[in-house]
Design a protein that fits this description.
Elements: E1 21-23, E2 28-32, E3 38-44, H1 49-52, H2 56-67, E4 88-91, E5 94-97, E6 110-111, H3 135-152, E7 176-179, E8 182-185
Length: 191
């Protein structure tokens, strides 16, 4: 069949799944999962965008969502807005520098309480010296702690009680937030 002037045939990987990136010529490109569904990560269409924007972090985050029970919030890797890995990744109190495309470690792990500035990839222009979490992630962590405390005390929480603000893989608030039985549009800072 015919395709429109702003449409392109989808690209596939070696396994026959969708390639990680779909572009609209002259406009933007966005990350997709292996089924071709749009996921977190986008950028302006430009020459060699497929080399710069590989969506590795977004795809990993999307796969983890499928593996973890959606009723409860969880943390995954921190992504940049284009779907690549943020240079610093922290899990608990341990932080490490990673390759932005692959997520592979490029440094030894450092304890967050000692400060992120100990990491070779630390950039004072974009990183807070002692705080890795963003406000949405801090709220999510508080809820996770509440859930585990309730379970430890034998209390079963209802789905309404575990509703949490939705954080995107970059740690900021998702643009649409569930509120009771409706949804509200939100700024990345949660307002």
């Amino acid at each position: 069949g015919l395709i429109g002037h702003l449409q392109q045939l989808p690209l596939c990987d070696g396994d026959g799944n969708f390639a990680p990136l779909i572009c609209i010529p002259g406009q933007n490109c966005f990350c997709v999962n292996e089924y071709g569904e749009r996921i977190f990560g986008d950028g302006l269409h430009q020459k060699n965008i497929h080399l710069m924007m590989q969506c590795g972090c977004s795809r990993l985050s999307d796969k983890l969502k499928d593996l973890v029970e959606q009723r409860f919030p969880f943390f995954t890797t921190r992504c940049k807005s284009d779907g690549s890995f943020e240079k610093i990744q922290c899990f608990g109190d341990l932080c490490v520098c990673v390759d932005e495309r692959t997520g592979s470690s490029t440094s030894d792990a450092k304890n967050l309480t000692m400060g992120l500035s100990e990491l070779p990839c630390y950039d004072e222009k974009i990183h807070d010296k002692f705080n890795y979490a963003r406000p949405c992630e801090n709220i999510k962590q508080g809820l996770i702690n509440t859930i585990f405390e309730a379970k430890r005390e034998g209390i079963e929480l209802t789905e309404a009680e575990v509703q949490v603000d939705i954080c995107e893989p970059d740690g900021f608030y998702a643009p649409v937030q569930p509120v009771s039985y409706t949804h509200l549009r939100a700024h990345e800072t949660g307002r």
